[in-house]
Design a protein that fits this description.
It is built from 3 helices and 3 strands. The protein is of the alpha+beta class. It has a domain of 56 residues: Arc Repressor Mutant, subunit A. The longest helix has 12 residues.
Length: 90
């Protein structure tokens, strides 16, 4: 079993809206598990489900997109934002 993913992670993976994912859950179109009130998805099970529906290799088998705060882009030493002005601070 692969790690469970959230609605937003699955929507990014499948390139559909979160609203579409919730509709699929309501229609029982996609495999999911409920943990309390939260809905989670087994990434591999979802991809296998779509492969079985199309009968073709799944074009969706791309790696998960990292969460927004987990990427380190560029230089890790960030310069503080300085407001442009006349230099006297007013």
């Amino acid at each position: 079993m692969s790690p469970l993913v959230t609605v937003l992670e699955l929507s990014a993976l499948l390139r559909v809206s979160a609203k579409t994912i919730y509709r699929w859950v309501a229609e029982r179109t996609v495999p999911f598990v409920k943990i309390g009130k939260a809905v989670r998805f087994d990434r591999d099970a979802v991809l296998a489900h779509f492969r079985s529906q199309t009968g073709e290799p799944c074009p969706l088998s791309i790696p998960l997109i990292p969460r927004a705060g987990s990427l380190k882009i560029g230089n890790s030493q960030r310069r503080p934002f300085v407001k442009k002005g006349d230099g006297n601070g007013s």
